[in-house]
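Translate sequence into structure tokens.
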Amino acid sequence: MCMKTGLVLEGGAMRGLFSAGVMDVLMQHGVRFDGIVGVSAGAAFGCNYKSGQMGRALRYNQRFARDKRYCSLRSLLCTGDLFNARFCYHVVPSEYDLFDNETFEQDPTAFYVVCTDVQTGKPVYKQLTYGGDEAYEWIRASASMPLCARPVALDSRLLLDGGISDSIPLAFFQRMGYERNLVVLTQPEGYVKHHNRFLPLMRLSALRKYPNFIEAVARRHEMYNAQLELVREAERQGLAVVIRPPQPLPIGHICHDPAAMQRVYEMGRDEASSSMSKVLSILS
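Result follows.
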């Protein structure tokens, strides 16, 4: 029996452009995986791997970097979503920078997104087989940051950012039988996550109605740091290759500067290029 290989993509909002750079180099080298799992930006940008669209994630983010329809305080105040739900997740992929649904559906790679159930505080893993509006909504749910987005209603659940409950879903893929994995992180070696400084605000917001979600946010740093250790252990055992930034990425969660986006993307390309021999070795 052939071993299953996986690509695990952390989120991080605009830090995800580092991962986009990594993925474009992998695609250029013809690297294939049996499965991909993405969280938040990892899901939003990782879907382009299955659809075979190199450069797309960087392209549309740069194009709409200063477009108030895409990401703006006005959108947050008017719609409840900092990243406008309809424009970002439906208009852009259907009208401005077309998402290749046909290739996505025909490609054999299994593609999963991770969301957090607001009512339980637990992760929800969804395999996306088909493109189109429902898939876009699952990706939106995975990338919907608390306080910056409304919960997304899907499958009788209310969903938000998958990173709250499973930031680096390597253990999930290991349980699914993916024995060799490439893990792409958006924080450098040595990073340690601390308490969420917005937790007091969440306790005062509409999210206070969901105590399990608030508890997940409160414990997220513990979960995340434990996952980093799991990633390191898999790396030590030769079960995973990890590509991470060499230093903190020079970009925030939100960015309206196309040049900054380009720099982070190029950092991802550089790290992928220098890691290619390790990637090919573990996948073979």
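Note: The two ends are 14 Å apart (CA to CA).
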